[in-house]
Amino acid sequence: MRGRHKSKKHGGGAAALWLLLPLLVLIVLKTNLLPQVAHYSVVSSPPSAVSRDEMTGDVDATECEQDSSGRNSDVAAPILRSKLSCNFSNHQSNTCTMEGDVRIHGKSATVYVVKASTYMPENSTIKLRPYARKWEDQVMQLVREVTMRSIPPAAGADGDDVTPPECSVRHDVPAVVFSTGGYNRNFFHVMTDVIIPLYLTAREYDGRVQLLATDYEPKWIAKYKFILAALSAYPVIDMDSEDTVRCFPSAHVGLESHKELGIIPGLSHNGYTMVTFREFIRSAYSLQRPRVAPVSRSSGRKPRLVLILRRNSRQLKNEAEAIAAGTEVGFEVVTAGPDDVSDLERFAGVANSCDVLMGVHGAGLANMLFLPDNGTMVQIIPWGELKWPCRHSFGDPVAPMGLRYLEYEATAEETTLNKTYPGTTPCSRTRSPYADRGLTRCGTSSSTASTSSWTSNGSEGSWSNCTEPSRRSRK
């Protein structure tokens, strides 16, 4: 982590951007100066109570053999009546919940619901991929499919001759099956597609829940170990390598999900919000600052600003000048490059110690989750009619977190593409795919931010890289 830098020169192209810095100082000095700005964007409709996408069947539970290696605690009394229910109407994710005699065989990625009293052949086999980004076909193909098999009350009923495996281990806590695949190296997507959905699904059990991961990656589990430990008192099970048959009184396959980097309180049956989620995150990492305190000039303490620096795309071309400008208006500026941000355990504390987080649009801005309440996030929007997608990802989520939002939009005069693509080329005249579907953008960059090349792939609101698309990282 680099310390403070000073420079006596300031680039004219970035002058307008740094006009925001005195405003930031005022916000920190008097935290009630500006109202919170919220742009609410609901990307999915609430599923109806009963719809053709929801399948429900009652199950008569039977007790499995108890195994002496049962892991969680003493075996609970068997549930006499239960149900299997799957919801495929949610825009973000498909989910199934089940109770009763539930047996999970990891290696085959199969969940057996034994002796379903309302068994029907057409609903006897259900498949889903337990990752909360179901509209993106490309990434969903990277997620392992899990099969749910309903077993009829009588063997061989309706020609079904499937015999459920016997229990090897019996648990007395619920199971939650999810995937660590997908865009698992991108912090924005990890939070949006996995961690927030895990919180919505598993937090209500207060640690007494067993997590089972498909597409299991030890490095991913290690990186997010504090969050996983705060959700479950038990180690995450590598479902892919397990030849064991684990039996549970209930299970969730797939995760509840509402929107990008957010929670819709009206859809959370436990009343969870992004404020409660951030409290949970602060507790998981033992972060010390719950709220930004107003800074007085007489206190001698400077407000801290963490500047997220990118290296491969959307890079600040005048980093030293930006750092110097922040220092001159009264901030203690802390810079964070990719290596700094990737050390999540350490960087969570750094971000929490700061009053402001600023950077060019990208996954690193999701670290605003660690800011104390009433902190400020500043997004630098690259040139190229990108205001809507940038606000959707990192502007709209800010106010529900209890934070404040400011933005600076780079102009055509500030973009480095003026050198790469002169104004007479077709590329420089191309509008954003969000404005005119089907047009190709050769690139967007600026003196304060430069982005990689993107093109519309023909689906509403979805982009892929003009060059070889990364299957692990999007933003």
TrEMBL record:
<dbReference type="InterPro" id="IPR007657">
    <property type="entry name" value="Glycosyltransferase_61"/>
</dbReference>
<feature type="compositionally biased region" description="Low complexity">
    <location>
        <begin position="444"/>
        <end position="465"/>
    </location>
</feature>
<feature type="compositionally biased region" description="Acidic residues">
    <location>
        <begin position="56"/>
        <end position="66"/>
    </location>
</feature>
<keyword id="KW-0328">Glycosyltransferase</keyword>
<feature type="region of interest" description="Disordered">
    <location>
        <begin position="46"/>
        <end position="73"/>
    </location>
</feature>
<keyword id="KW-0808">Transferase</keyword>
<dbReference type="GO" id="GO:0016763">
    <property type="term" value="F:pentosyltransferase activity"/>
</dbReference>
<keyword id="KW-0325">Glycoprotein</keyword>
<protein>
    <recommendedName>
        <fullName>Glycosyltransferase 61 catalytic domain-containing protein</fullName>
    </recommendedName>
</protein>
<dbReference type="Pfam" id="PF04577">
    <property type="entry name" value="Glyco_transf_61"/>
</dbReference>
<dbReference type="InterPro" id="IPR049625">
    <property type="entry name" value="Glyco_transf_61_cat"/>
</dbReference>
<dbReference type="GO" id="GO:0000139">
    <property type="term" value="C:Golgi membrane"/>
</dbReference>
<feature type="domain" description="Glycosyltransferase 61 catalytic">
    <location>
        <begin position="187"/>
        <end position="378"/>
    </location>
</feature>
<comment type="pathway">
    <text>Glycan metabolism.</text>
</comment>
<feature type="region of interest" description="Disordered">
    <location>
        <begin position="438"/>
        <end position="475"/>
    </location>
</feature>
